[in-house]
Structure formats: structure tokens, C-alpha cells
Amino acid sequence: QKEVEQNSGPLSVPEGAIASLNCTYSDRGSQSFFWYRQYSGKSPELIMSIYSNGDKEDGRFTAQLNKASQYVSLLIRDSQPSDSATYLCAVNVNYGQNFVFGPGTRLSVLP
Amino acid sequence: GAVVSQHPSWVICKSGTSVKIECRSLDFQATTMFWYRQFPKQSLMLMATSNEGSKATYEQGVEKDKFLINHASLTLSTLTVTSAHPEDSSFYICSAREGTGVYGYTFGSGTRLTVV
């Protein structure tokens, strides 16, 4: 089983809608979870981090974590065409010794 | 915030030559840096963990004699692709974290390597 899994997409949503990106992980000892955005040809940039169960909001972005279900998600409200990118879920595994990326979900926001 | 500078941003080299990529933490000290490779439409794959003052730790399947890593100071790690071949053409990205906690990593801008 892969350590971090995401749907590869593409996920297409109309402008103004809510985009929902999901990620599951296998290491129950994981404590830190991150969402990165990567535009084509560019390196990833950190947009959200979450460490505790529940929701964490930052502007149009909300990260949700459920450690019991080993599930983390990212919601993007009022999606804009500029949000079109690949979103990478990253999880620390082995009690912080390693940092693993999921394969990424490609999001396309249609004008 | 933490800034990681990577240079060059792109390079074209002939098959059989070597290429050096630099990764610098500009406003913090990084005892550990990471090197990733990303092929088109694929996710980041960790190649190696670069440790200041000691040997790098390579992931399974990564040839340490081909991808030489040097982390001589707390702000600089270099990756040298030796005897490059067209199949080494990829996007190479370094990252570093500030401090020793399990916080997010900052990425360099990446280096697009094309071997012809």
C-alpha cells in the first residue's frame, strides 16, 4: 500500500464553486500534514499545514484532518482559474523521520 | 519566511558531461536538505537526504556514485549529476526546513535539466 494516496484527477470545477481535494495516508504515527500547490513547470509552494483533528481555515482554503480515518482534505472556496494547478498532499511518516508526498491531484477551474 | 535559492533554473548539457546544481538556504541554517526529482506529469520523488558535514542518505534505486551530494555548510548543498544521459533529463528540486521540527519544507525554484 502506498503511503500517501490522492486521486490524480483532473478535477474540474466551475469558477466560484468549491473544490474538494482528498488525501489518505497509511502511517498512523503521522503527526503533520501539508498541502502544496504546484503550477506547471514550477516548484511546490506550501499553502496549508494542519496538525490537529478538525478544520483549519486560511482565507479561501480549509484543511480538514481526521486521524482516526487517516484522511486529510483541502477545500477551496470560490475557486478561481488561478487556482488551477496540481495539489500535493504531504505527510510526515516514521514519527517525523521522513516526509512523503502523494502523487498530486490536478485541479482545473473553468471560467 | 524561509527562502531557498536554487541555481541554475535550467541547464542543457551534452551526454557524458557532469552538471552541478546548488541549493542555498538564504535566511536560515539547514542541517538537512532534500533533493527530489520530478518527471513530467509525475509526483516528486525523494532522491536523497543531504546532511551537513556527513554523507548523504540515498533512497533505494538512486545511484550515489551518479548523483553526488555535498553539504559542506549549513546553508549550501550541491547535487552533481555525473556522466549525464538523456534519461537523467528531469526537474530537480531541493528543499530545506528551518529548525528541527516536523514543520513544512521550503522548496527551491527547481532546475530543469535537459541532456542532449
Task: Describe how the helices and strands are arranged.
The complex is a heterodimer of chains A (111) and B (116).
Chain A: E1 4-5, E2 11-14, E3 19-25, E4 33-38, E5 45-50, E6 54-58, E7 61-66, E8 71-76, E9 85-93, E10 98-101, E11 105-110
Parallel strand pairs in A: 2-11
Antiparallel strand pairs in A: 1-3, 3-8, 4-5, 4-9, 6-7, 7-8, 9-10, 9-11
Chain B: E1 4-7, E2 10-13, E3 19-25, E4 32-38, E5 45-51, E6 57-58, E7 67-73, E8 76-81, E9 90-96, E10 106-107, E11 111-115
Parallel strand pairs in B: 2-11
Antiparallel strand pairs in B: 1-3, 3-8, 4-5, 4-9, 5-6, 7-8, 9-10, 9-11
In short:
The complex is a heterodimer of chains A (111) and B (116). Chain A has 111 residues and is an all-beta fold.
Any descriptors?
heterodimer; A: 111 residues; mainly beta; 6-stranded mixed β-sheet; 5-stranded antiparallel β-sheet; B: 116 residues; 7-stranded mixed β-sheet; 4-stranded antiparallel β-sheet
Characterization of the model:
In chain A, the strands form two sheets. In chain A, strands 2, 4, 5, 9, 10 and 11 form a six-stranded mixed sheet that branches. Chain A has a five-stranded antiparallel sheet with strand order 1-3-8-7-6, with no helix packed on it. Chain A is globular. Chain A is mainly beta and about 110 residues long. The mean pLDDT of chain A is about 90. Chain A has strands at about 5, 10-15, 20-25, 35-40, 45-50, 55-60, 60-65, 70-75, 85-95, 100, 105-110. By secondary structure, chain B is mostly beta strands. Chain B has strands spanning about 5, 10-15, 20-25, 30-40, 45-50, 55-60, 65-75, 75-80, 90-95, 105, 110-115. In chain B, a hairpin with a 6-residue loop joins strand 4 (about 30-40) and strand 5. Chain B is globular. Chain B starts with a strand and ends with a strand. The interface of A and B includes residues 42, 43, 45 and 104 of A.
